[in-house]
Amino acid sequence: MARLAAVGGLLVGGTMVTRAVASEPPDASPAPRTLARTASGTGAGLVSRLGGDRTAGHWVGSDGRAVVAVTDERAAREVRGAGATAQRVRHSMSELRSAAATLRAAPRVSGTAWALDYRSNEVVVRGDRTVSATDWARLTDVAAGIGGFVRMERTEGAFTTRLNGAEPILSTAGRCSAGFNVTDGTSDFILTAGHCGPTGSVWFGDGRGERQVGRTVAGSFPGDDFSLVEYANGEAGDGADLVAVGGGKGVRITGTGVPAVGQRVFRSGSTSGLRDGRVTALDATVNYPEGTVTGLIETDVCAEPGDSGGPMFSEGVALGVTSGGSGDCDKGGTTFFQPLPEAMESLGVRLVGSGQQGGAGSGPATSPPGAAAPGASVPATGVEGRTLLARLADRRNVGPGLLIVAGSLVALVATRWIRAEQDRKAYQRHYSATWG
């Protein structure tokens, strides 16, 4: 038995070493990853240290490095000394925010939106096709009074809240989507858009109303755009840390974060599926027909009616849920998202399966592994479902494989020596008995 075990150890160790070596090309390099989180952290740290009077935001440049807008040369030197790119601008963050506050104080005009464009150092005001010429002229006068760094733009379509999403949930209020699964430590919930339905709305997972998902227990809209749907049985189920992206696939979510302007992000919805784009602005304000929502993330990711409440993420990090926008996925458009950290802090919840907030994804979001619907039990390919052969091919197995081979050789030599000693002693006993 010992010799059989030693032979088995030689086979396993040899397989680990040979497959691990064969799987690693001569010039192996790490898998490509975006640098958005690193650049975002660098830029945010510099902006925080230098202050709002000397900076005007930060974003991720085309080379993946942090770019910080600064108002003086001394600040520019500090930025360059930290390894980031400095861009001199005329107006500080304090001025940009003051302009946005003036716009918020003006009479509300439905169908308008504005956001701080860090890269152009302007406040961009947009008006959709529903805004009358009179209202647009009145808002233009307000912008002119602020200064030349407020840019007025007309946009096609209309700014609307958009129902539905990655995994559909339905109620009498309409069809919406599951965003992310969260928990308060006692019960599990779906965090989705607030405009989907008021507190008390009952949600179902099918059009016949046979499978009740849960009930809305908290939310905020307008002002913010998030709500909390408590699962009917209190539990989200297996695979709750995955978000569906269509085609029977999903992405594992490992934490929450705040995006940077210029960062590549992904959005999933039941109408248009998985789409990607860039963050174009932060702290956006949108005047929907139902009310004004502030503090939104502005992106150029397309969306259509049926995508609202769906998750936005990047590299396994949850960023927000779809609020609304204009345009479609044929012509493109602007889509706004409710930031997730703000909503979770307000509701007192955390991601299901995440012990802390702000975790980092284990890989790029460009290639979603596995599949799962909120509350469904579906394995994630490449995360936990690796085959034994794939595990043996892991490059980290070279060292352990060599140890197993060495141990097995020692065991074989030891068993051979023990067997030889046993045979020698048996022969001695037999010879002694015969001689006597």
Automatic annotation (TrEMBL):
Keywords from the UniProt entry: Disulfide bond, Hydrolase, Membrane, Protease, Serine protease, Signal, Transmembrane, Transmembrane helix, Zymogen
Biased composition (Low complexity): 363-379
InterPro entries associated with the record: Pept_S1_alpha_lytic, Pept_S1A_streptogrisin, Peptidase_S1_PA, Peptidase_S1_PA_chymotrypsin, Trypsin_dom, TRYPSIN_HIS, TRYPSIN_SER
Transmembrane segments annotated in the record for this chain: 398-418
Region feature Disordered, mapped onto this chain: 22-43, 352-379
The Peptidase S1 domain, residue ranges: 187-341
Protein name: S1 family peptidase
Organism expressing this protein natively: Streptomyces hyderabadensis
